[in-house]
Amino acid sequence: MKVLLQRVSQASVQVAGDCVGEIGAGLMVLVGIEHHDDEALVARMAERLAGYRVFADAQGKMNLDVREAGGAMLVVSQFTLAADTRKGRRPSFSKAASPEQGRRLYEAFLADLRALGISVATGIFAADMQVSLINDGPVTFMLEL
C-alpha cells in the first residue's frame, strides 16, 4: 500500500464537472492499493496516516497531526501509485490490486480513518476525476507499508 499525502490549504475533486469532495486545510491523500495488501495492513496505514505529524505547532515545528491541527482529509483512490516504473518507458500495473480488492480495501481505509475521528471527503472509486489542490509548504510525503 502506498499513500501520497500533501499538506493543503484546500483541495477538491470533481467528476463530470460536479464537485464530489472538498476540504479546507488538511491533507490531500492519494491511495494506491497493491494485490498483496489486506485489511490489517490498511488499518495500520490509517493509524500511521492519522498520527503523521506534518502541521506546525506554536513554535513552527511539524509536531501536530491532522486531528490536532483541526484539519480534514480528501482521500482519492489512485491505482497508478502501484505502478512499477523501474524499467522501460511504460509503467507496469502488475502489482496493483484487482478492482474488486481495491474497492473493498479503499472503503475499509475510509472507514478506519473515520473511526479514528477524522473528517474524510472522497472522490469516486474508479471514476475519471479532476483533483485540484493548493499544496501548503509545499509538504509532500510518500508512506509505504
Automatic annotation (TrEMBL):
GO molecular function, one term: tRNA binding
Stored InterPro entries: Daa-tRNA_deacyls_DTD (IPR003732), DTD-like_sf (IPR023509)
GO CC annotation, single: cytoplasm
RNA-binding keyword on record: yes
Uppermost EC category: hydrolase
Cellular location(s): Cytoplasm
Catalytic activity line of the entry: a D-aminoacyl-tRNA + H2O = a tRNA + a D-alpha-amino acid + H(+); glycyl-tRNA(Ala) + H2O = tRNA(Ala) + glycine + H(+)
Short motif (Gly-cisPro motif, important for rejection of L-amino acids): ranges: 137-138
CDD domains with a match to the protein in the record: Dtyr_deacylase
GO BP field: D-amino acid catabolic process
Keywords: Cytoplasm, Hydrolase, RNA-binding, tRNA-binding
Signal sequence segment: none
Major site of localization recorded for this protein: cytoplasm
Catalytic activity, EC: 3.1.1.96, 3.1.1.-
Record NCBIfam families: D-aminoacyl-tRNA deacylase (TIGR00256)
Subunit record text: Homodimer.
Function comment: An aminoacyl-tRNA editing enzyme that deacylates mischarged D-aminoacyl-tRNAs. Also deacylates mischarged glycyl-tRNA(Ala), protecting cells against glycine mischarging by AlaRS. Acts via tRNA-based rather than protein-based catalysis; rejects L-amino acids rather than detecting D-amino acids in the active site. By recycling D-aminoacyl-tRNA to D-amino acids and free tRNA molecules, this enzyme counteracts the toxicity associated with the formation of D-aminoacyl-tRNA entities in vivo and helps enforce protein L-homochirality.
UniProt note: domains: A Gly-cisPro motif from one monomer fits into the active site of the other monomer to allow specific chiral rejection of L-amino acids.
Stated family: Belongs to the DTD family.
Record protein name field: D-aminoacyl-tRNA deacylase
Taxonomic lineage from the root: Bacteria, Pseudomonadati, Pseudomonadota, Gammaproteobacteria, Oceanospirillales
